[in-house]
Amino acid sequence: CSVVVDDFMYTGCSDSTIRKWTLDDQQVATFKGHEKLVRCLKFMDGYLYSGSYDGTIRKWDKNGECLATFTGHSDGIMCL
What is the C-alpha to C-alpha distance for residues 30 and 63, in angstroms, rounded to an integer? Predict the structure, then answer.
């Protein structure tokens, strides 16, 4: 999965990370926190949200700080 915001692309990865890229293909950050594959991404109100097969949704700032973790799902998150 991927989402483009301003001059950056964010990609959800099977290694449980989210990677931040410039639009000319330079990786600039790796967001760590999920325990399984990152399945979906959504950008809303200035924040990046990610859903994972670990059953959590995380809220991130644009620099990769996890601001909140939403738990309670019994299975993986498929879409946001």
Answer: 9
> What 3-state DSSP class applies to 63?
coil
Matching residue, tokens 């000319």? 24
Instruction: Please measure the distance between the N-terminal and C-terminal CA atoms of the chain and give it in whole angstroms.
Output: 11
Neighbours of 53 (CB within 10 A): 17
Q: What is the pLDDT of residues 50-80, one digit of tens each?
A: 999 999 999 999 999 999 999 999 999 999 9
Query: Residue 27 pairs with which residues in a beta bridge?
Result: 21
Which residue carries 């644009």 as its tokens?
62
Distances in whole angstroms, Cα of residue 40 to Cα of each of 10, 14, 17, 37:
11, 11, 12, 9
